[in-house]
Design goal:
This protein has about 325 residues and is α+β, with helices and mostly antiparallel strands. About 40% of the residues lie in helices and about 25% in strands. It has eleven helices and 16 strands. The protein has helices at about 5-15, 25-35, 50, 70-90, 125-130, 145-150, 170-175, 180-185, 190-205, 260-275, 295-310, and strands at about 20-25, 35-40, 40, 60, 90-100, 140-145, 160, 165, 180, 205-210, 215-220, 230-235, 235-245, 250-255, 275-285, 290. Strands 1, 3, 5, 6, 7, 11, 14, 15 and 16 form a nine-stranded mixed β-sheet that branches. A three-stranded antiparallel β-sheet has the order 2-13-12, covered by helices on one side. A two-stranded parallel ribbon has the order 4-9. The protein is elongated.
Length: about 325
Amino acid sequence: MIMNPDRNFHEKIYNDDIIYHYTKASTAIDYILYNKQLLFNKAVNSSDPIESKRAERSILYNNINLEEYNTIEHHNNVNKLNNKLTDLHQRFTQICFCKNTPSNKCTNEYYLGATDYNDELFGYTKLRMWDQYADRFMGVCIAFSKEKILNLNKQLDLLEGHMEYLNFNGLKHRKVGDIQGDYLEKVGIQKYNEEIEIYLKRSFFYKHIDYSGENEYRIGTLYEDKKCRGEIVRGKIINNSIMLDITGCIEAIFMSNFVNEKQRNELINYANTLNVELIEMEWKHNSFEAIDYKKRRTFYKNLEQKTLKKTDS
């Protein structure tokens, strides 16, 4: 019996709407699937220092004669801009996903892969992500509909977009750092404030080119108390977490074949409740095999029942 997902499944998930989130099996079961939520994390807590470190900001001038800028109003405006940039950086929270890689060569009649497709085009086949974010190949990867998530969470004023990967020189020129004193005097505080906010928000979606293999799509929002939801932690109600509602947004669940039996049972129960496919990633010495776990489970249950009937007779 063929245990692989049928062709329709991969055609359904190979599009720009599907995004993937890697995590531990326990996190998926106890929090994401149970609460129907994803947690936003502050960018300043990222392990990547280029994302987390605050800019060492200076005020730059092209005009040699600085006396004309030596006013209380100018200094106040500079401080406002500096505080604005620091505030936005401190408040930005994010959730990271992978995307499918677009290609006009999704299928190839001569290609012998695990999915009958060019496997690397799919966001759920990234070995580095399974290693780093899915508990060293022991976790899960959940596929979502991007459009459904965005429509469901409009109240959060989401900032979302595809990551742009730059080398160090590109990051130095594109990420907002110093304040241009001459330009501030030329356009005024209101216009500069509006422009610099746009530039800074865009910089939340820059990353070093070394991460380009992740093919990341990011959903973010700026921290505000009114966006927070209460949760109970160690018997106390904590009200400083922003959650992304994912109700009705899950399109498929991928689990490693290294998850334990208890986790398998819980994952298939969620997959049945959500009416989505549960795909088992069976790791091989040279690739992987994608297994329709519901189909496999049904097959072995039927086989077991037939064996019992023969034994009874």
